[in-house]
Every structure is written in C-alpha cells, then in structure tokens.
Amino acid sequence: MEQNIKRIDACFSVAGQIGQSDLQTLAGQGFRSVICNRPDHEGGPEQPEHTALRDAAQALGLSFAYVPVATTGATAQDAEQMRTVLAQLPTPILAFCRTGNRSSKLYELATRGTREAAPYDIVVIGGGSAGISVCASLLKRDAALRIAVVEPSAEHYYQPAWTLVGGGAYDVKNTVRATADVMPKGATWVKASLSAFAPERNVVLLSDGKELTYQQLIVCPGLELAWEKIEGLEETLGQHGVTSNYRYDLAPYTWELVRTLRGGTALFTQPPMPIKCAGAPQKAMYLACDHWRKQGVLDAVAVEFNLSGAALFGVPAFVPPLMKYVEAYNATLVFQSTLVKVDGPGKTAWFDVTDADGNVSRQQKTFDMLHVVPPQQAPDVIRRSPLADSAGWFETDPATLQHPRHPEIFALGDVCGTPNAKTAAAVRKQVVVVAENLIALRKGAALSKRYDGYGSCPLTVENGKVILAEFGYGGKLLPTFPLDPTVARQSAWFLKASFLPWFYWQGMLKGREWFTDCSGN
Hints:
Helix content: 25-40%
Oligomer: single chain
Organism: Pseudomonas lundensis
CATH topology of the largest domain: FAD/NAD(P)-binding domain
Protein name: TIGR01244 family protein
Strand content: 15-25%
CATH superfamily of the largest domain: FAD/NAD(P)-binding domain
Distance between the termini: 57 Å
Number of helices: 14
Mean pLDDT: 93
Radius of gyration: 27 Å
Pfam family, one: Pyr_redox_2
InterPro entries: BLH_phosphatase-like, FAD/NAD-bd_sf, FAD/NAD-binding_dom, Prot-tyrosine_phosphatase-like, Sulphide_quinone_reductase
Largest sheet: 7 strands, mixed
CATH class of the largest domain: Alpha Beta
Shape: elongated
C-alpha cells in the first residue's frame, strides 16, 4: 500500500484502487480523509463500492467523500465538486481512482484557480533583514530574475537599534520604514504569509489560499517570540514596570522605566538559547546601570541578571571584560534561572532555578522594574514542516546554507538550524553565500561559497563604549579590524549607533555587500 501512495503536497496524496483492509493502514499513517474518484462498477467484482469503503472509513474515524470521475476525464463540474470537498475535509487527504492519475489531474483542476498564474524563478519567504537583503543581492547579480517576496507585514524594522532605544540613545521612529519602501525594485511583493511547503511540486501554499511555484526557494521568515510561554506576561507587558527591548512598542517604555527609577529592584532575564542577539539581554542591563550610575542612584538600585544558561556569554574570550562591568555596576548574576511567571500588578516574578545537582526549585522575587527577554522558537509553519530539523529549526547545511534533501531550497537568518549567533551581522555574510550558491546552482556549477558562522554582537557596556564581539563557528574570533576585540571602545559605539543603522538602510537592503568576502558596488 505504501508504495502505491504518491504525495502531491503537504495536504494531499493520491493512490490507485484501495480496499477496506487498506483503510486501517491509511489511518495509521496519519491520513484524516479519503476521497474516492473512481465510479462504482467501473471494474470487475474485485472493486468495492464506495458505500462499503465509506462505512469502513467512518468506523475508523476517517472522513470520506465520493467524487466520481469518468475515464474520459474530469469535467468543470467535477472540479467544482472536488474544490468544495477539499475545503470541507480535514487534512491530510488521500484520493484514489484506478491508478491515481485521475485523482491527481482532478486535484490540479480543482486548485488551479488558487495558484499564482506566473511561476517565479525564486520565491523568498520573509521580507525581514534576510529576505530583503538576499533579494536585492540576487537582483544585482541578475536583474532579469523573477523574484517574489512573501511578507505579510506592512512595516520593516531595524531591530538592532532597539537596545539603544531602551537606553535612551536612539529614537525608535528611526527604526521603522514601510515595507513597500525597502522592497527591491524588480521584485514582486506578495502580502501574505506561508501556510505550508509542497517541495515535491516546487510550490509554497500561502495564507490567502494561493500557491506560488518556484525554481528555487529561499526560506528566511525569522523566528517567533514566545511571550505566551511565560505565565501572566502578555497581560502585563508595557505596564506595571514590565518591559522588553525585543518589541518596537516596548523599547521606549524600557527607557521610561530606566529614566524614572531612583531606587528599588531591577530584574533582567535571559531565556534558554537560541535567541536572536544573545548579548541583547545583558546590554539592556549595562545601559540601564550606566544611566543610574551617572544619575547617582545606582547604589539605591539592586540589579539582578537571571540567565537560563551557565555562562555570561557563549564565547569565553569576552567573559572577563564583561565581568568587569558586572562588578562595576554591582550587579548580581543568577545562573540557570529561568523566568516562568509574572504578576505585574503584584510586582512579583517567579523563576525556576537549577542547582549544581540538577534539582529545580521555584523562587519568587519582587521587582520595581522587570526587563524580559521571551523564549524564542522557529515559526509554527517551520516546526511542523518536513523540512525542519529535530529541534524544529529549518534544516540547513551549515556551510552552503542549502537544504540537505532539497537542493533547490536555501535558508538564511534566524530560522536556520545552524550553530551560529542569530544576528543581523550573520545575515550580512549569509546573504553572499546564498546569492552566490543559488546563482551557481542555476548555472549548473559547483557551490563554491562557504559560511564560516560569522556573527557580531556589539556589546553596549556603557553609553559611548562598545565591546565589538565578532566570532564564528566554535567561538572562533573573527575581528574585522586589527584591534583587541575584548576592549570597550568609543569607535565601536560610533559603529553601532551611527554607521551600522545607516549602512543597513542604504547598503545592506540595497544589495551592497560591504565588509564581506564578495563586495558589491
């Protein structure tokens, strides 16, 4: 039976004639519905009537529909009936006829009206930093490429500056622009979100019911902030002293809290990895402490940093200089401490703390200010996809950024299941690798570009100074400039606060590949 099944997409498969004994197998394989496209009495006595199959299917909890198609081929009426049935039945669905061919062609007719008329050379899933940048870089290499960018949001954000906003050093209004204004000329913006992959047909299914066909696919929808995993958090964000620099509308509230706090307890949190910009949780603490020190109130503020992990920073070389600032700010570090619950009005937070023996205890702490970094995960459409790895991230070759089982699919950005830091700087290097390798694939050439895991985390240890942490796979230091990267510098602050935002809007999103091994114009 299993060899008889042909998968058309994530929701629909076809097969030749089935019998009642096959229904149990189909249910065990996860199918939820069966469609019979073979008319009764078409074959000999060995062909069961659809009513017998229907009764047996329903007894197993399977939905069943009968949409018979004559051997002369499907009619428009057949296609309309099939379209109605597809909208009603739970998925995944198996349809059958004598060989499966009529079922396959009927499905094609029934869904043709939902498919984008013109196929694209390349479809890009996601219009964030990765999606816009790789699209622009590809069009610089070949302006004739037909590229569609699937992105539901009307606004595009420069998120690395939100830490500065929370520290009173940047205007939040300068971190957002209209998606239409940053979309590369020559690309088609499809304002929808991804609902499923159908890699066997080189198709993606969208939230608006349409399908897009492609020759190559680039997957870069970013990650999800799982606020809901912390009990009580969503109800109190943006009030009662609870904030986060990980959201556009909340970063200004962080600064309001920092600016007005004159004493009390300030808690900062960091969830389990991976998260985007692993240094951002502690950067919020450093900028807050620097302000309180300059205002002469730091001694009146009890600062505590609760980390789910066992180390202050994942690259050991940067831990000693960071510890000097932790000590200078008199901040308390609590390792293996994960925020699990918040009561905003009651100014109370609960943490699950793991001791040296692996025992977990729940500890209650009061606060005047609570800066939360939420747990983070791949989008649901990625996690439930056959293209995901065992951890739910998009499966990607760490060097070529190509999917190991579908060579026509590439990925970059935060969604990748690669062991690099999830930063905009990582995207800057990944763009070149994906663009070059994808063009090589289209030409039938070898994929020559390799990503070394580069990521950058400008650690804002005080207002006016940054430790510029640049590193690759395995924590290897990869400094851009011939300076000691562990030293806090004013020049690095200028880079973080002035140059990089300008370069993001005017360079990276326009396909200019500066500071990479493949410079653009």
